[in-house]
Inverse folding.
């Protein structure tokens, strides 16, 4: 599903070269639930950007569903983001003037999918927000907003969902609800990759990768066999 | 993303910022309205001038003595044309419908204790018809009165006003350079042009003018009326040919007369008015450009404000082209809107202008299409840079933008 080999990213900061990711290797199979942990500056954001096809590596190989991402052009990357990747952000990143339904629909519109409204409604239903479809993000609570974001991430049936501190802006009760939702989705065989600071959140994943100085220093499976 | 969805998104963002959209469109509104109203005023002025000039007859060829060296400046001898020439032309060119020889000079007119200085024009009987003078009262003099050089006159409306102040002039006697003339008719006013008042003159038989008033045996011009405008060139050639023959001008020598027609005048005036229209239109077009810069300015602000939105769209799969289109559609919608309102406003302004006085205005479809097309083109042109800036944003930076 995901194959990463000697993946590295070097940023040019003026005269200096900063190695944000120093050659990482791993594989993630379909249906896994992976938490990536590490202090800030450890390279986990860089890794997320690369996995999310928002950026290209300086060297190494990133293969997503047998597609060599590092060789793609910007438009092809946009298509991969649209069809195979769902993003969930810490700050929700919904369009403020569009309703929950319209926000959920957006990836389908960019993907030129027919019956966009119908599919988006199903996705909203899946996160338990079908009754709030017409509401704008400002009329929704934080937890509801994050659910809309998850519905938007799900709507194109992507290969992976990347969640960057998805509970960071939520109180612990709402955070737990969101994590329960992730658990539920994972049981339905959605592949999840989650970046977090919080040990407690990470513990809910089946696999924890620990990063430091651009390298993966620990990779633990909580269950012996990922399903 | 279908174009319709992009269009809906553009509309939503414009409706959200109603005041900003209106102010941005205002530049285009003013530009388009001024282009349309300025061109309509210029075009109206042109039509009005041409109308006035054509009151003098567009199918008239004028023959004058001497040579025309440059535009409207004659040199050479002034006594080379005679009444004989006029008759000769009338007899020998079948395509013409009238000939009127003229002599004219300024002279003092006197009636009772009132004086005025006006043009005294000695003409043939058909002059009134040729020069589009209509009779108000009485009649024009006839062939018989010309043959016998009678002292009769027809009075223009300005002279009438100055000398008679509303009295009926028919049957009254006025003095022209001290000589008595019987008034037999008056003409309908034609309206003054800026350089010349055709109503400030009296008309007397050409023979009377030559013998009894001015003391000359030549004529100062001969007007020839063409039956059809299309024949003007042929008639001009015929006139030159037979006059050269009659004047015994050897081959290779210059004419001792020159021929011109009023359509040349018409053209040069038309050209001048056209230049005026272009000038007005050009000034207005500059304001349209300024409106375009306004669009660019606001779109740049809008792109910066919506950096995060652009990041979100890119993250969920919007291609560069789709972001570009979204912003381009917004600026085109603004300019389209501004263009539409501007067209209506421009038509309104030219209506008001023509309602205010005797300014004629002509709103041409051409100017509407021009202004409207130009405003949309400006929307695309000035919208492109901001849209391109948006499309080229890096999604990672855009997502982090606060």
């Amino acid at each position: 599903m995901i194959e990463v080999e000697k993946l590295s990213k070097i940023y040019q900061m003026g005269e200096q070269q900063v190695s944000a990711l120093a050659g990482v290797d791993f594989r993630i199979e379909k249906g896994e639930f992976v938490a990536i942990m590490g202090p800030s500056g450890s390279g986990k954001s860089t890794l997320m950007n690369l996995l999310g096809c928002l950026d290209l590596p300086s060297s190494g190989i990133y293969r997503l569903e047998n597609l060599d991402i590092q060789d793609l052009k910007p438009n092809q990357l946009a298509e991969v983001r649209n069809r195979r990747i769902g993003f969930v952000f810490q700050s929700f990143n919904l369009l403020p003037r569009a309703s929950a339904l319209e926000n959920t629909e957006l990836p389908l519109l960019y993907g030129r999918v027919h019956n966009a409204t119908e599919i988006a409604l199903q996705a909203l239903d899946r996160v338990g927000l079908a009754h709030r479809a017409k509401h704008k993000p400002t009329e929704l609570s934080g937890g509801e907003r994050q659910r809309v974001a998850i519905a938007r991430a799900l709507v194109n049936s992507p290969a992976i969902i990347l969640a960057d501190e998805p509970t960071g802006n939520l109180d612990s009760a709402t955070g737990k609800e969101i994590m329960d939702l992730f658990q539920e989705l994972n049981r339905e065989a959605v592949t999840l990759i989650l970046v977090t600071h919080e040990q407690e959140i990470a513990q809910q994943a089946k696999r924890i990768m620990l990063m430091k100085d651009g390298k993966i220093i620990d990779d633990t499976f909580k269950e012996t066999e990922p399903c | 993303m279908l174009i319709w969805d992009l269009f809906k998104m553009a509309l939503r963002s414009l409706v959200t910022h109603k005041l900003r959209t209106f102010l941005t469109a205002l530049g285009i509104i003013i530009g388009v309205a001024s282009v349309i109203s300025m061109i309509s005023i210029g075009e109206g002025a042109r039509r009005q001038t041409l109308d006035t000039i054509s009151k003098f007859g567009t199918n008239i060829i004028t023959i004058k003595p001497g040579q025309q060296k440059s535009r409207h400046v004659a040199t050479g001898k002034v006594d080379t044309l005679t009444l004989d020439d006029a008759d000769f032309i009338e007899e020998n060119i079948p395509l013409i419908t009238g000939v009127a020889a003229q002599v004219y000079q300024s002279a003092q007119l006197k009636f009772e204790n009132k004086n005025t200085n006006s043009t005294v024009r000695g003409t043939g009987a058909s002059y009134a018809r040729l020069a589009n003078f209509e009779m108000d009262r009485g009649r024009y003099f006839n062939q018989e009165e010309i043959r016998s050089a009678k002292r009769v006159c027809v009075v223009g409306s300005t002279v009438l006003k100055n000398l008679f102040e509303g009295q009926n002039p028919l049957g009254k006697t006025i003095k022209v350079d001290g000589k008595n003339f019987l008034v037999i008719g008056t003409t309908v006013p034609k309206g003054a042009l800026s350089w010349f008042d055709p109503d400030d003159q009296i008309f007397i038989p050409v023979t009377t003018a030559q013998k009894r008033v001015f003391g000359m045996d030549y004529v100062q011009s001969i007007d020839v009326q063409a039956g059809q405008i299309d024949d003007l060139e042929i008639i001009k050639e015929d006139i030159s040919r037979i006059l050269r023959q009659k004047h015994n001008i050897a081959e290779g020598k210059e004419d001792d007369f020159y021929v011109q027609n009023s359509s040349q005048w018409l053209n040069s005036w038309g050209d001048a008015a056209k230049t005026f229209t272009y000038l007005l239109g050009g000034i207005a077009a500059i304001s349209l450009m300024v409106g375009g810069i306004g669009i660019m300015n606001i779109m740049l602000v809008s792109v910066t404000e919506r950096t995060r939105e652009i990041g979100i769209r890119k993250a969920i799969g919007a291609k560069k082209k789709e972001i570009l289109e979204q912003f381009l559609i917004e600026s085109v919608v603004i300019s389209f809107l501004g263009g539409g309102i501007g067209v209506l406003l421009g038509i309104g302004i030219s209506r008001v202008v023509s309602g205010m006085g005797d300014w004629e205005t002509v709103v041409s479809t051409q100017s509407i299409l021009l202004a409207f097309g130009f405003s949309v083109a400006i929307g695309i042109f000035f919208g492109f840079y901001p849209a391109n800036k948006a499309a080229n944003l890096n999604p990672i930076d855009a997502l982090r933008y606060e």
Q: What stands out?
A: Chain A is about 35% helix and 30% strand. The first helix of chain A runs from residue 44 to 51. Chain A touches chain B through 26 residues (CB under 8 Å).
